[in-house]
């Protein structure tokens, strides 16, 4: 049996995926065009992973992700991430991004300042573009300067990012709602 497993699961935005191992969650993914496309993406990213029924702890994470995507304000901070292969800078970015509450946003520059690297907004954007844990590490809550959507590397691109922010009824920092 593989030490890394994955499962696809239905959510209000489509079939997401979760990959886990003994150290926690190894990765997640947002819906691709079809379940087959999601499986192909997972096989490219995690070639040793085998599809398997999620154990109880992973089923709880799936339930929390489903609740967030259904509009419940969940922060997912309790989800254990396996960051053993994540470089120090990216780890700091992901940990700071996880601290952004549902429905709130920061800019890439603001997140860079929060990790003590105020001139590294571009590097923060690159780290988030390589985020292996979308939703759990809420890279969709990071915007470009002036509230621009910025990029989004998940399937569906910025359309998906804006949809996630709409589900969370996001506001710009401490300002107005994005969708008011």
**Helix/strand order, N-terminal first:** EEEHEHHEHHEH
**What is the number of domains?**
2
Percent of residues in helices comes to: 25-40%
Rg result: 16 Å
Report the mean per-residue pLDDT as an integer: 90
In percent, how much strand structure appears in the residues?
A: 15-25%
Can you identify the CATH class of the largest domain? Answer: Mainly Alpha
- Give the terminus-to-terminus CA distance: 50 Å
User: Order of strands across the widest beta sheet?
Assistant: 3-2-1-4
Separate helix tally: 6
3D architecture notes:
With 180 residues, the protein is of the alpha/beta class. It folds into 2 domains: 5-69, Methylated DNA-protein cysteine methyltransferase domain (Double Stranded RNA Binding Domain, 2-Layer Sandwich); 88-167, Winged helix-like DNA-binding domain superfamily/Winged helix DNA-binding domain (Arc Repressor Mutant, subunit A, Orthogonal Bundle). It contains 6 helices and 6 strands, in the order E-E-E-H-E-H-H-E-H-H-E-H. The protein has helices at 35-45, 56-69, 88-98, 108-114, 121-129, 157-167; strands at residues 5-11, 14-21, 24-29, 50-51, 106-107, 142-143. The chain has a 4-stranded mixed sheet with strand order 3-2-1-4. Strand 1 and strand 2 form a beta hairpin. Helix 4 (108-114) crosses helix 5 (121-129). It is globular, with a radius of gyration of 16 Å. It starts with a strand and ends in a 13-residue tail after the last helix. The mean pLDDT is 90.
């Amino acid at each position: 049996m593989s030490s890394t497993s994955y499962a696809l699961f239905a959510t209000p935005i489509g079939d997401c995926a979760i990959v886990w191992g003994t150290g926690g969650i190894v990765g997640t993914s947002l819906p691709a065009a079809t379940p087959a496309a999601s499986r192909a993406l997972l096989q490219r990213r995690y070639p040793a992973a085998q599809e398997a029924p999620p154990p109880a702890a992973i089923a709880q994470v799936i339930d929390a992700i489903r609740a967030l995507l259904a509009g419940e304000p969940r922060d997912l901070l309790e989800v254990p991430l396996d960051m053993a292969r994540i470089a120090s800078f990216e780890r700091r970015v992901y940990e700071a991004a996880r601290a952004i509450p549902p429905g709130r946003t920061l800019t890439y520059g603001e997140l860079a300042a929060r990790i003590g690297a105020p001139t590294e907004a571009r590097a923060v954007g690159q780290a988030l573009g390589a985020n292996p844990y979308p939703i759990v590490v809420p890279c969709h809550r990071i915007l470009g300067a002036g509230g621009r959507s910025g990029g989004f590397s998940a399937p569906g691109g910025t359309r998906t990012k804006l949809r996630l922010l709409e589900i969370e009824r996001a506001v710009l920092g401490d300002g107005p709602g994005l969708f008011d």
